[in-house]
């Protein structure tokens, strides 16, 4: 009887194993088929939404749609953003020479058969002895001034396409400008620029307010406000919308302990006609000097008159050198107009024409004198 039970149990075991094997043989491939079909459906859905699924070839495969869109915008705009390096040489109040380096950003907004034209802030290049730019992390290329507007805090510089080609930039990309009047508070914006002089970086935020007038360092500018981080070096860079269009030129950040997330960009609809005018107007006069205002404290400390601006350096080949103006001279009057600040002298020169002769009163070594100056065409920063 035990042998019969043993035989019966053995048969049952073999039959059960056979059934399990058949089930597994049919079930596992069926499960794999269902899983693969579901993955294919998900892949098709992502591709329909514009999200890459090529894991080996596109890093955006692991991102959500918003992140992938941000990455694509930065890749689209970054080649048209220039890193600007400025060198300034001068003399201090002890007449000792010095050299300082500054960093900023610019936007390639036009190119012809010879040059690429770059918009930036005037304060990025103002007073510099030389300015160089870098595109796509290439070597620095010398730039020359086309025009500048101190009141609008905008300037245009240009670089040779041949120089860029020699530096490794074979395809210069021009940025696309958008309509800043059509912006909406709350829309996503991205600031791209040469933050801290360490190469192009990007920050993201929202548009905090539409175009409004604000006073920034004594200048009235029409700006849009954003909470995207704008840091030193970002000046002159781009604020772009979700289409990769430039809607602002980054210009300033309010930096106070009780304030956070307030940055300003000159609205594109304000900036564009100005930079186009600067690009086409090449007949601006220049005095050919680097100057600084005399404050009451400086006047008392160094025994200088309180009125006037101090000539720190003479630009070689310029109007001042030809007329005999020297470093250390104190300019007190320009064309019979009293001068107290550098802004006054800059505005007075700007109101003149190339080749116009003007009278300049100055004090040199305690002696007052008047020189006749023929204003030459602007050739420096």
CATH superfamily annotation of the largest domain: PDZ domain
Strand order of the largest sheet: 1-2-3-6-5-4
Classify the fold: give the CATH topology of the largest domain: Pdz3 Domain
Percent range for helical residues?
A: 25-40%
> What spatial form do the alpha-carbon principal axes imply?
elongated
Unreliable segments (pLDDT under 50, ≥5 consecutive)? 1-31, 42-56
Number of helices: 8
Radius of gyration: 32 Å
What does this protein structure show overall?
The protein has 381 residues and is α+β, with helices and mostly antiparallel strands. 27% of the residues lie in helices and 36% in strands. The protein has helices at residues 2-48, 65-77, 122-125, 161-166, 268-280, 296-302, 319-323, 342-350, and strands spanning 81-91, 97-111, 115-120, 130-134, 141-149, 154-160, 188-193, 201-216, 219-226, 238-240, 246-253, 263-267, 285-286, 289-293, 309-314, 330-334, 337-338, 357-364, 367-374, 376-377. The longest helix has 47 residues, at 2-48.
Give the key terms.
single chain; 381 residues; alpha+beta; Thrombin, subunit H; 4 domains; six-stranded antiparallel barrel; six-stranded antiparallel beta barrel; 8 helices; disordered N terminus
């Amino acid at each position: 009887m035990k042998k019969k039970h043993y035989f019966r149990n053995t048969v049952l075991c073999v039959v059960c194993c056979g059934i399990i094997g058949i089930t597994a043989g049919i079930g596992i491939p069926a499960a794999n088929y269902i899983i693969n079909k579901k993955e294919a459906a998900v892949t098709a859905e992502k591709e329909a939404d514009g999200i890459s699924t090529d894991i080996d070839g596109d890093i955006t495969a692991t991102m959500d749609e918003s992140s992938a869109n941000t990455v694509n915008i930065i890749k689209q705009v970054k080649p048209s953003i220039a890193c600007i390096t400025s060198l300034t040489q001068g003399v201090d109040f002890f007449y000792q020479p010095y050299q300082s380096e500054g960093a900023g950003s610019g936007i390639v907004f036009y190119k012809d058969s010879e040059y690429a034209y770059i918009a930036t802030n005037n304060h990025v290049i103002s007073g510099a002895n030389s300015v160089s730019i870098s595109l796509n992390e290439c070597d620095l290329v010398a730039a020359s001034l086309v025009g500048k507007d101190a009141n609008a805090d905008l300037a245009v510089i240009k670089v040779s396409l041949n120089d860029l080609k020699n530096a490794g930039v074979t395809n210069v990309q021009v940025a696309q400008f958008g309509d800043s009047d059509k912006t909406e508070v709350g829309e996503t914006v991205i600031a791209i620029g040469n933050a801290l002089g360490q190469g192009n970086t990007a920050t993201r935020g929202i548009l905090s307010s539409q175009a409004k007038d604000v006073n920034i360092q004594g200048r009235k500018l029409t700006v849009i406000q954003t909470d995207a981080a704008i840091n030193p070096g970002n000046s002159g860079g781009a604020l772009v919308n979700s289409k990769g269009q430039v809607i602002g030129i980054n210009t300033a950040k309010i930096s106070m302990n009780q304030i956070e997330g307030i940055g300003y960009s000159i609205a594109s609809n304000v900036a564009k006609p100005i930079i186009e005018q600067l690009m086409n107007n090449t007949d601006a006069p220049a005095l050919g000097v680097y100057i600084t205002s005399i404050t009451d404290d400086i006047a008392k400390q160094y025994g200088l008159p309180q009125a006037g601006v101090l000539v720190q350096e003479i630009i070689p080949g310029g109007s001042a050198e030809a007329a005999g103006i020297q470093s250390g001279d104190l300019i007190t009057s320009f064309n019979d107009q009293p001068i107290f600040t550098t802004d006054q002298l800059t505005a007075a020169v700007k109101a003149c024409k190339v080749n116009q002769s003007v009278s300049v009163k100055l004090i040199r070594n305690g002696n007052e004198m008047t020189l006749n100056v023929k204003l030459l065409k602007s050739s420096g920063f």
